[in-house]
Amino acid sequence: MKCETQPLTPSSALPNSVRHIITYLKVRHLVDCVDNVTFRDLVLGTGLSPRTVRKALSILKSLNLIKVSRDFKHGRRHLYQLNFKKLCEIFPEDKLVSDGLYFIDVGIGLRKFLSPKAIAVISCADVVLYTENVPSQVLELVPEKATTFLLDRQIPLSNLAKTGVVVVLFDGVLDREKIANMLSQSGVGTKVSCISCTSPITYAAQLLECGRCCKVLFKRSPVQIELYVRKGTSYISGEVVKCVKVMLEMGNGHYELKALDTSVDELRNVRTGEDVAYVVYVRR
User: What is the model's pTM?
Assistant: First the structure.
């Protein structure tokens, strides 16, 4: 009689090679912002033997911790991606976030621009509320076990005082008024923490300070961000949802950041060489 191998449970001790590959994939996805890696990448990046990598991948597949797809450019090659939604479920002992209510401004909204604290909180969330402007790339980090709600109406903070990690995801520029109204309420009765990730406005100011003249595009969904730094805006394809004018003004012996909401008409009249940057949110 053939003896079947018992599947690993979340509390099982995984081989070091499996944890090593998970760590490698986290770095590739979150730091290098690479969506998929090949088998060759795993071997060269981890320093493990091909046989060890194959065994580790087999374990990861059984736990549904990786997603496997075909590389259409190389039909026989497989591509691997870490399944962030399963991490907290498989490794509950890695939960280092205390219960409470967390407001996270996703900023630019791409994984490599999220702060380590934001990633840790999202990956441990029990309840997630998000606005329509939160990029799908951020929502991919929400664990499968979490209950999610679209924040399409005003919700009193007292209603969010639940046991566990409750996360409110929003875009700090597009959702500023909605979130400010929520935060202005008192008597929540629970711990409230605010986390800000890299803001496109701050990023534009840094490019100005460095003397750059460029156009930077951040492809995120559903709203894309375009930065025009000392550069005239070319034809923008899509609906301009929001436009912010970014300037640096000398004050108290150093530059101070100044950001103003502006109109689409001003955006169309931008002249090349102006010492300003424009952060434009475009829905395609």
Answer: 0.76
Same domain, 35 and 52: yes
User: Which of 196, 219, 246 is the C-terminal boundary of a domain?
Assistant: 196
- Please count the CA atoms within 13 angstroms of the CA of 227 that sit on its side-chain side: 23
The structural domain count of the chain equals: 3
The tens place of each residue's pLDDT in the chain, 284 residues long, gives: 444 444 544 445 788 888 889 888 888 887 777 888 999 999 999 899 999 999 999 989 888 888 888 887 777 788 998 888 777 667 665 556 788 889 999 999 998 888 888 888 898 888 999 999 999 989 988 988 888 989 877 676 666 666 788 999 999 999 988 888 877 764 555 568 899 999 999 999 999 988 889 999 999 989 999 999 988 777 788 899 999 999 988 766 677 788 888 887 777 777 766 789 999 999 98
The percent helix, strand, coil of the chain (3-state, each to 5) is 30, 30, 40
Residues 48, 42: Cα–Cα separation, whole Å:
8
> Do 97 and 186 fall within a single domain?
yes
Same structural domain, 192 and 209: no
Residues 6+ apart with CB under 8 A from 242: 173, 174, 261, 280, 281
DSSP 3: P
63 & 110 share domain: no
Question: What range does the domain containing 251 cover?
Answer: 200-283
Q: Look up the CATH number of the domain holding residue 167.
A: 3.40.1010.10
- Whole-angstrom Cα distance, residue 142 to residue 284? 25
The reply to whether 2 falls in a domain is: no
Calculated CA dihedral for residues 127, 143, 87, 39, nearest 10 degrees: -160
Among residues 280, 175, 173, 174, the alpha carbon closest in space to that of 237 is found at 280
Q: Are residues 97 and 174 in the same domain?
A: yes
